[in-house]
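HOLO CASE FILE
Compound: pyridoxal-5'-phosphate
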Amino acid sequence: MSQLAQEIISAIRKVVPYEDTFVPLHEPSFQGNEWKYVKETIDSTFVSSVGKYVDRFEKDLAEFTGVKRAVAVVNGTAALHVALTLVGVKKNDEVFIPSLTFIATANAVSYCQATPHFVDSEESTLGVDPYKLKSYLKEIAIVKNDECFNKQTGRRIKAIIPMHTFGHPVDMDQLIEVCQQYHIDLIEDAAESLGSYYKGQHTGSFGKISAMSFNGNKIMTTGGGGAILTNDERLADMAKHITTTAKVPHKWEYVHDQVGFNYRMPNINAALGCAQLEKVPDFLNKKRSLAHKYSEVFKGVPGVTFKQETDYSQSNYWLNALVLDEANEGIRDEILNLSNSSNLMTRPVWMLMNHLPMFRNCPSMDISCAESLEKRIINIPSSSELGDK
Ligand SMILES: *Cc1c(COP(=O)(O)O)cnc(C)c1O
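Model generated. C-alpha cells follow.
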C-alpha cells in the first residue's frame, strides 16, 4: 500500500468525515420550491408540452447566464445535436472536439453524420489548448471562400466544441481568435459549467450557440434536461421550432414545415428547473466553500494537485478533481480502490474518446497532454451540501 494513497484518503476524510455513510460523487439537493412547483404541474394536469414553467425557465436561465435566449430541451446531448444542426454541420464535415470529454460531445457530432476530430487539452484548464490548436491548424488547414478545410482529408472543418471540464472555463480569448482566423464556428459544451465565468462573462455565452445539461448529477437538475443558449434571436427561434417538431403554430391544425425533433423539455421538468435555478447561487457558495477546504488540505500533500480555477476565471467547482503528478500515475487505481471500498466515491476521468472503439479511427492531433491527464485525474465527492456541513 503506497503512503501517498493513504495520505490522499486521509486528506479527503478531513473534509468529508462521515465514515459510516456512503458519500456519493455528486448528489442533488432539493430544499427550495421544488415540491411546490412540481405539485402545481400535477394539480393543473399540465405536466407535458403545455404550461407556464418552460417559458419561465427559459427566461430565468437566459437572465442568469446573460444570454439573449435560452431554449429548454430534453437533455444536454439533444442540445448539442440541435446546436450542431443549426450552425449547419453536415454529413462528412469534421468537428473539432477535445478527446478529453464526456461521450455526449462526440455522439452529437456523429448524429449529424460528421466526424469528430480530436484536439488536445491543457493541464491548466483541462480544456482545449488553443495554442496547440493554432499551430496544428497552420499545418493541416486551408481556408477557401471563408471555409476551413483539412488538407489531409479534404473535408470541411465546420465547427469546434470546447468543453468546460468539471466547470473550469477554457481559455476563450485565445480560442475565439483561432476560430475567427480559420472561420470555424464556436459551439460551447457548457453542460458542466452553469455558474462558471471566464473573465466575468458566463460560460456558454461566447459561442454562436451553446449547450447546457440539467441531468441529475449536474450542479442543478431538471431530472433529465438541457438547454440551448444563444445571443442570436434567429437561431433561438429556429432552435425552438425544430425542437418542437417544427410545428407551425395553429389552434387545431397539425402542419409541420420540416423534419423536426421532439426535444422539448416537459413542463414538469421545467418546474423542477425553476426551483433549482433559484438555489444555484446557494449551491455555488457551498461548492466554493467545499473546494476551498479541499485546496487547503491538499496543500500538505505533495505529489498531487487539487484542481483550482485559473486567475482569470471563476469555476462552479461542479466536480472536484485531483491531478496526480506524472510520477504518481501508477497509484491511481490504488486510490480508487481504497476510497470506493471505504464509503468514499471517487472515479477516474472518462476514457479518452479516441480510445473508444467507434471513434478509434477518427482524425486527431497529437493529444499527449490529454493522454497523460487521462491517467492522472481523480474526481472526489463534490455535492454542494458537503460544503455546508
Ligand atoms: C452531462 C454532459 C452532457 C450532456 O449530458 P445529458 O446527460 O445528455 O444531459 C454533455 N457534455 C458533457 C461534457 C457533459 O458532462
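CASE NOTES: The first strand starts at residue 69 and ends at 73. The longest helix spans residues 267-298.
CLOSED: yes
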